[in-house]
Amino acid sequence: MKAILQPLELRGGRLWDGIADTSREGSVFTAISDVGVTLAGTASPESRILDVSGCTIIPGLIEAHAHLCFNAHTDWREVYDSETYETLLLRMAGSANQMLVSGITTVRDLGAPTKLAVALREAIRARLVSGPNLLVAGAPITPTGGHCWFLGGETDGLEGVQLAVRERKKAGVDWIKVMATGGNMTPGTNVFAAQYSVEELRAIVAEAHRLELKVTAHAHGIEGIKSVVDANVDMIEHCSFQTPDGPVKDDEVILAIARSGIAVSPTINGAFAKERNEARWHMRKTLMKSFFDARCDVLMSTDCGIPDTPHENLAQALIVISDLAELSPVETMKLATSLSAKLLDLPDRGTIEPGQRADLLIVEGDPTQDLKSLQHVRIVILNGELVSEVK
């Protein structure tokens, strides 16, 4: 039986709807699960009134690249290998709740054992545990011994990758993820080289699209990035143009990404700020500006769960991408709200409009003027339900 939620009436403060260039006085509006968001409405006598004076109401944040099965510390692999499935699932649930109370109301998990990822998503939907709306890819498709092979997704050859897509569809995933290059967290893989042929990647895309799933590809090195562009994947994770000497942009490939409509999920995290006085920072900055200058579709992601990137890192990471891409606070917040919702095919969220899901974040101050306000969470509302309140 579906729970009956107490209607909430928010009074005072400011409101940024995920679309406008500025925030405005919020006045009064209600957030009710069955109805969604009602602006400037009159709540029922049973409504709980929340005074949000001095705060700003914004859409709940969207994290497009997370790993709930990793602990964000340098001992991540030791912990992952030593845990039972039961313990790992509980830790994933704890990390998901941690993200929710930080204001992240939608999370796309792009790498975990498939059964655990799907089980956690369903447990959250059934309200057995508290957490954000989850989209899951399960175990990424990777060659034998390839990047993140230990998550359970090793697959080789044309028939193998086609079967892998079908298996994930059967398991109930929301996205297909493929490891197109090696990765820094898997010793013995080559970050700069492609792991699959273009033919194999095209087979993955064709099978996924036949089954009405989209494909996102982990790709660091230029060779792998070119391969996934040729295969016409839907999105590229990292897209970091890595070489042994650091990131080097390739204008021709970036223009090809823009022309093809492939979205870029750049996985920018708060730890990058430590590089501000290093050459690597300026190389990243040049690359990020190139994506925006070429009018690529870019959404916000952090790769949270990897070392030095806590699951609630999104608010800090938004400050970093703002600096790297030279974006205003409003332009930056759109990457984690309305633009993310659009690029992840989630038309019911990312903005505050009548009929939208009531996934809301209330923060102290005005983040349209200062992104640091996003780190001062006052209230989190998930689908009309008050899930976190700091008094």
| CA gyration radius, whole angstroms | 21 Å
Number of strands: 18
Helix content: 25-40%
- The CATH first-level class of the largest domain comes to Alpha Beta
Tell me the distance between the termini.
31 Å
Quick one: biggest sheet?
Answer: 6 strands, mixed
Q: What coarse outline follows from CA principal-axis ratios?
A: globular
- List SSEs in N-to-C order: EEEEEEEEHHEHEHEHEHEEHEHHHHEEE
Structural class: alpha/beta
Strand content: 15-25%
Low-confidence stretches: none
Name the CATH homologous superfamily of the largest domain. Answer: Metal-dependent hydrolases
Description of the molecule:
The chain is an alpha/beta fold. The chain folds into 2 domains: about 10-60 and about 350-390, Urease, subunit C, domain 1, CATH 2.30.40; about 60-345, TIM Barrel (Alpha-Beta Barrel). It has helices spanning about 75-80, 85-100, 115-125, 155-170, 200-210, 220-230, 250-260, 280-295, 315-325, 330-335, 340-345, and strands at about 10, 15, 25, 30, 35-40, 50, 55-60, 60-65, 105-110, 135, 175-180, 215-220, 235-245, 245, 265, 360-365, 375-380, 385-390. The strands form 4 sheets. It has a 6-stranded mixed sheet, with no helix packed on it.
Structure summary:
With 391 residues, the protein is α/β, with parallel strands linked by helices.
